[in-house]
Write a structure and sequence with these properties.
This protein is an alpha+beta fold. The chain is 47% helix and 21% strand. It is built from 6 helices and 10 strands. A hairpin with a 2-residue loop joins strand 7 and strand 8.
């Protein structure tokens, strides 16, 4: 009789434990998306808006030029699903009013993310530059431009957008930061491909030229962009300069990763957030078992 009671108590304890786990499942399903969204929010900022430019002139709705523009933008959206850069000339509707255009994603952006970024850029164009004869939009991960002038292959060092970070108090720190910044930026001017990275201490920098530029055109554009952030941002801890055919960015928050940007959460902060969240999950499970065992 006593053995039977003991067996019943063990079964009851197991049932209590299983019930406790069943009650925890909804909590876990709520917490795991939190962890996932925290991770994605810190890295997936490639569709964040930077700037847009629209021509004052408008095309006539239903005109051959509009059909050329629509055809070009369709080609852009399709090409972004398998490449990070391409340019197009569309003249099927009328050879006398061709449309020129290109898109470019950051070289380190995966193809699927590149396509997503370009789609977002196209949405920005349609809402912010309706019927514009020419327009360009820059997101953090990609760039898109079209127009009725043959700008393909032409150099352009016009400053389109510049942004600087904050100045951290402390003469010694700022002096060190300035040296590290200059070292990181100097690594961008030494030639190489269209995508370049530089480093100096804990300062990182990157540059990218549009794919229609020659090596010399790219070097000239990067040098002009570097001069813009040096002159305009002083001892700020971050800076961006977007020119017509290239951009330069530097920041001082640690190691650069393929989706990292100085406006996001650093890897160290992200690890702390995930660690705390997982700790809460384990604590909830432990307390639930203690409570069930006590019963």
């Amino acid at each position: 009789m006593q053995a039977q009671c003991s067996s019943q108590e063990q079964n009851q304890t197991k049932e209590d434990h299983m019930k406790g786990m069943a009650e925890l499942l909804p909590i876990l399903f709520l917490l795991f998306p939190l962890i996932s969204s925290t991770t994605m929010a810190s890295f997936d900022d490639y569709t964040s808006f930077v700037y847009v430019g629209c021509s004052q002139s408008k095309y006539i709705l239903g005109s051959p030029y509009q059909f050329n523009v629509d055809s070009l933008l369709t080609s852009v959206a399709n090409a972004a699903t398998f490449s990070s850069y391409n340019n197009f000339t569309s003249s099927a509707a009328s050879g006398s009013s061709p449309a020129y255009g290109l898109f470019q994603c950051r070289v380190d952006l995966p193809v699927a993310d590149c396509a997503s970024c370009v789609r977002s850029a196209l949405d920005q164009l349609s809402s912010l530059c309706p019927s514009a004869s020419g327009a360009g939009v820059q997101l953090k991960g990609c760039f898109l431009r079209y127009g009725n002038d043959s700008f393909l292959g032409e150099p352009d060092t016009t400053l389109l957008y510049k942004k600087c970070g904050s100045v951290v108090p402390g003469a010694g720190y700022n002096s060190d930061l300035l040296g590290m910044r200059d070292a990181a930026l100097s690594g961008l001017s030494g030639g190489g491909g269209s995508y370049r990275v530089g480093a100096g201490g804990h300062v990182r920098a990157l540059a990218q030229c549009v794919g229609d530029q020659s090596v010399k055109q790219c070097n000239d554009c990067v040098a002009a962009a570097v001069a813009q952030v040096k002159d305009g941002c002083g001892i700020a801890n971050a800076g961006d300069a977007y020119l017509g055919k290239c951009y330069v960015s530097y920041w001082s928050d640690g190691v650069y990763t393929s989706r990292h940007y100085h406006g996001g959460v650093s890897g160290k902060t992200l690890a702390i957030i995930i660690g705390v969240t997982l700790g809460l999950v384990i604590m909830i499970i432990f307390l639930s078992f203690i409570r069930r065992t006590g019963k």
